[in-house]
Amino acid sequence: MSSTGSHRAPTLAVIGGGQLARMMAQPAIALGLPLRLLAEAEGVSAAQVIPDQLVGDHTDLDTLRAVTAGTSVVTFDHEHVPIAHLHALVADGIAVRPGPDALVHAQDKAVMRRRLAELDVPCPRNAVVTTAADVEEFGLPCVLKTTRGGYDGKGVWVVRAIDEAQAAFDAAAAAGVEVLAEELVDFRRELSALVARSPSGQAAAYPVVASTQLDGICHEVVAPAPDLAPALAGEAQEIALRIAGALDVTGILAVELFETADGRILVNELAMRPHNTGHWSQDGAVTSQFENHLRAVMDLPLGSPAPRERWTVMVNILGGPTDTGRLYDGLPHAMARDPRLRVHFYGKDLRPGRKVGHVNAYGDDLEDCLERARHAAAWFRGDLGNVSA
Ligand code: ADP
Asked: By CB atoms within 10 Å of each CB, which of 79, 94, 331, 332 scores lowest?
């Protein structure tokens, strides 16, 4: 009898060379899992750390076939691969995780809203609108969103007077997409519920976190969300698990939520990949979201999402408006000041508003964690004096 067992791991293809793919590489090393990358350009964030790579266009099917040739599973750094191409890869016999029928809900906000309504998931009141008259009928103030292609607050307009609606219609027309109107939610704060789910149906729910956005960009995350009523936390996790199951999501699902001033939660949007609101888990949870994403898409048993510490605070490092930031040069001060601080750089050049890294601070005292993480991020951003100071 010959053994058919193998000590060699299959190769996982990853589409997109951003920081999320880069951070998947760390647990892939530990798990002995080879990654093959499709990068949009040479030298991008993940291309610096994943040697088996192809540079090409993720909207080109031949390129997608080239990068997945010889692999059995493909996953994503972003959600922008055309759904038709993903169906073609499935027909080729590649396991696409998350699959196209799930991923479409992270690509198209109108499709997502319709499906969540069918699932009785609480959402802001919403409707697809095609004219200013539709917007008036929907009611002001409201939020207009392009149904596809938005990110980090781009493609989102708060409309208080009807003449402000035109910008959304112009952007949608230019991109060939629709406009979704939503009620302007009076939220107390934004929450995020992250779950990992495998093709076998195993799921793991991370503690619900609170995130702070500025200009539509995530700046700060506190895990777990302070003073969140246990019933609301449970409801948020239950919603995320229900969506992951109903949509057959594989990998990480992040459900962005609003906690309303009157104590309800509403779903804002879905992401089907590791998410900025899960970066705290790299240092603050038993198993990081990146490792659980890999475990899930490879259909391995999931790791514990339990926190290691009472609190973890994540603060993003963004390029400031002026060129005063420092990354590597900032390490001596940051490390000497706080030996427990965890620093994650993405290998990106500083540009205004660009996410170039984040820090995690964990411990028993929330105020202390906030101070340490905020100080370090501000230091790297260059908000605390110049390098020689
Ligand atoms: P993106 O695709 O850019 O992430 P989102 O739909 O998450 O867009 O919106 C970006 C930000 O705009 C949210 O984080 C939130 O602060 C605000 N926002 C979005 N929808 C609403 C809404 N219906 N009511 C109030 N604020 C909203």
From this structure: 332
